[in-house]
Amino acid sequence: IAGITQAPTSQILAAGRRMTLRCTQDMRHNAMYWYRQDLGLGLRLIHYSNTAGTTGKGEVPDGYSVSRANTDDFPLTLASAVPSQTSVYFCASSEFPLGLAGDPDTQYFGPGTRLTVL
Amino acid sequence: QKEVEQNSGPLSVPEGAIASLNCTYSDRVSQSFFWYRQYSGKSPELIMSIYSNGDKEDGRFTAQLNKASQYVSLLIRDSQPSDSATYLCAVAGGGTSYGKLTFGQGTILTVHP
After folding, report:
1. B89 vs A: CB within 8 A
2. pLDDT at A89 over 70
């Protein structure tokens, strides 16, 4: 079982270009998430999906879009990259949406994508 | 004010000591609370989660939650050099905000021999 895979591992991108970061999980988890991590700012939620076919905006959604056509895949698209989107991007998943009434769930993170926008 | 605040670091403790990491949050309807460990250049990994007021112990780790004070902490007993990492506090929204996890900025812990 691979868990969560992300691609590419790293990418250097020219400003203005379109880029899709891929995320695939093989655990049949309902919920998936995209975060960016910047020095001094911690992890910030970009978009999330509580179940296939639904998505929601996180703390920093501007400039990013997501889709959740099936359970396993949750791609993140930068329509027109800007230098401020230089960051490490983590995809994550959990069996159920975090915070749903009940016992806390476990969230698994992918290995990350390091993106540099010049 | 940031929604989730962690005590400023870095925190340095000697091997064998107790490391205490603290976190406060602003959203009173928050339901679930998490502590993640992140080694440099790696992705975060969950080490503790807590839902109810009080203490929850798992090996050398104890999470403490006080919803009235909006405070959650992590104690690491018998600290080891391998515990040196950044520790991230995270809070899951309650009510209609479930699914949204808000992280603190992290506390760097160094355990020196």
Report:
1. no
2. yes
